[in-house]
Amino acid sequence: MKDLARKVGVSYLTIQRIETGEVSPSVAVLSDIAYCLRYPITGFFDKAMGMRLIKSTDQPEIESSTLTLKLLVPKGVINDKISVSLGKAGRGKCIDLHQNEGFEITYMLRGTCRMTYDGRVHEMAAGDIVLFDSERPHEIEALEPMEFINFYLRQVP
After folding, report:
1. Three-class secondary structure of residue 29 per DSSP
2. CB 3.0–4.6 Å: which of 30, 77, 87, 153 could bond 25 by disulfide?
3. Domain 56-154, CATH 2.60.120.10 — does that match?
4. Which residue has the higher pLDDT, 39 or 145?
């Protein structure tokens, strides 16, 4: 375990706590562990789940005047740290400046937007993917109507 900790760049105690379930690793640390062990990252997830059909009636929608989020895979379906949502927004500011604990991966399905992340502005279009540490301030302005899929990976201390 000491060698693994050194390769991953964390302390031996952190690896021990992850192994005993005292703490949950971030996606980045989990990815590094999987890489160092030459083990697929999917192998760390519960395979006993088998298959699960999530009916459209079990995918709640959250609406505001500027954004609709459909929770495709709500928190707790895979585990308490992962959720997947489909977002739709009209033109204009649709997500105010905020921060979350964890990481997000967003895939633009259609439209264009301007993402301000940690004070820097980035333009995104259909087909673009952004992976980011959501603990840093970020906000979104739709430059035209847009749709996106967002994977939210919560980090639990």
Report:
1. helix
2. 30
3. yes
4. 145
Token match 């997830």: residue? 45
Tens-place pLDDT, residues 99-125: 988 899 999 999 999 999 999 999 999
- List, in order, residues 6 or more apart from 22 with CB less than 8 Å away: none
pTM over 0.85: no
Question: Taking a C-beta distance cutoff of 8 angstroms, is the pair 3, 132 a contact?
Answer: no
Question: Tell me, what's the pLDDT at 100?
Answer: 87
Q: Kindly tell me the sign of the dihedral angle through the C-alpha atoms of 23, 24, 25, 31.
A: positive
Mean pLDDT over residues 94-101, rounded? 91
| Type of residue found at 51 | M
Which residue has 């905020």 as its token pair? 98
Q: Residue ranges of the alpha helices (H) in the chain?
A: 2-8, 12-20, 27-37
The ranges assigned to domains in the chain are 2-44, 56-154
